[in-house]
Amino acid sequence: MERLRGAGVTTVEPIVDEAFGRSVGIRDPDGSRIQVNESDRSLYALNAGARTAAAARLARMADLVVEARGLTKRFGGFTAVDHVDFSVQRGEAFGFLGPNGAGKSSTMRMIGANSPVTEGHLRVLDLDPATHGQAVRARLGVVPQEDTLDTELTVFENLLIYGRYFGLPRSLLRERIGQLLDFVQLSERRGSKVDNLSGGMKRRLVIARALVSEPDVLLLDEPTTGLDPQARHLVWDRLYRLKQQGVTLILTTHYMDEAEQLCDRLVIMDRARIVAEGSPRELITAHVTREVVELRFPPGTQDAAAARLDGHARRVEVLPDRVLAYTDDADALATFVHGQDKGMHPVATVVRRATLEDVFLRLTGRSLVE
Amino acid sequence: MSVRPRAARIPPAVRVVEGYARTYRRTWKGTAVTTFVSPVLFLAAMGLGLGTLVDRGGGAAVPAETYLAFLAPGLLAASAMQTAATDTTWPVMAGIKWLKTYDAALATPVSPRDLMAGHLGWVLVRVTFASVVFAAVMVAFGAAGPLGAALAVLPAALTGLAFASLITAFTASRKNEYALASLFRFGVVPLFLFSGTFFPLEQVPELLRPIAYVTPLWHGVELTRAAALGGAPALPALVHVAVLVACAAAGFPLAVRALTRRMTP
Fold first, then answer.
1. Complex ipTM
2. Is the dihedral of CA B71, B73, B79, B84 positive or negative?
3. Per-domain residue ranges for chain A?
């Protein structure tokens, strides 16, 4: 699928310079062409230093899809999001990884201009969601945590009604919906009532719905929660293709494999705060070892066995049902554990690469999915 | 600053109405019985059946030629209330809580205000259509002339809008559906019975009459009956209209506020 750039719909976007608090020019959505207003040229023509700084600022703004500083959300006395800082670059897949209740969805709703910011700074697509909510929503595609489909209506009708909310002409929508249904592999279910679709199909339909306005940015709140493995992989594949086409993906998940599969960069959230940020690889390198040996011991012998690992693993984590030994050479450690006279008799040994789950455990002392 | 397609200039609320209409094409069967059959049943049972007894008793009991002629416009207004109440209770709760279709709409450029305006616009369409059908049945039963019946549709639709606006605000501010059944039991049904629909308000104990004065249905019944029969309503027509318009106008911002609080916390 091409980006479905609609018939005759051309888009240019304002460049808003925060230092001046107004639009100083226009640019293509992909940032390829930047044009600064004639009258504003002088602002950037003071001297070489200022010009470089201004150019850098313009380039940065062209690339920033979301920028949050000290972003906070409180519901009465409860703080759902507590002074978080992050920014999302154009074209990247950015994730919020964390357990339920970490503040991921509240953050997403603020980005989606559907929940007022309590405190802090938030800009989405160079706009303030508080004052330009409608303009922000017009340019985002939202895949909410729940499907929010009208189950009485058909697949096609759900997309058509949603597309009309964006003010798109019916003829354009008819054509685009056909392409989108091809893309999410639902063409044969075009006339089916949504009620009769499987969970995975509904999820794909919601993704198609979010794409009906051809957004540059897709917000996905737990895109694959509740899906079976096959359905999840199909969703991941489609999201990966969108990313290839240049769509910025912002997603929340409590699945570390999803974060690893999809995200170029992510923040780990826990209890309303961001506790770490980086690419999946960077986070693993920074916080845990490359490999892990998971050991299960007979009941009652776990603590004693774990004590014997001291000095042989870089770090040992004792969970209720198993021991995790972090090491740079898992095979050597496994061989050591199973060696004679070491006094350890694990009933099961798993050697694996370290994951984001390990990072989360290291940073918060708890597992992601409880 | 994108070059917007033509349809973008249509107000979002109108696009919401369009969405409702599209949905109705799928779901109209559920309401068709109420719309088409209940006017016939009510006018047959109450108007003809009961009416024969009333008229035999001297006919002076009601200020109309026949009991059927007295009753039909009252029922028209009361049906408008019921249609409005039906469309603004469970369907609104479904949009907020069960299907969450409001959540979907509010992720688009549609605002809570657009959504509520579109919703009430659609209820007005529905009530007007149901009232036209009712008016046609009235003519068929000989309960009113074609002109009177046609005129009576207007105050009936306004009555529906007044209730739609208030009840939407009520529903949107409820956490769950439990209060909705009570609304019918303690609100809609008593008003249906005691707002001058079946008998003149003078038959209601004086102590209870103020309830009718401050609720919209009695005003709607008075206007609708005056339009159908060509007489004068209890108060100047403008007063009745003002009460109904005030209810509609008061309910709308309350509904928008309740929905905004609920959906975009």
1. 0.90
2. negative
3. 5-62, 64-283, 289-353
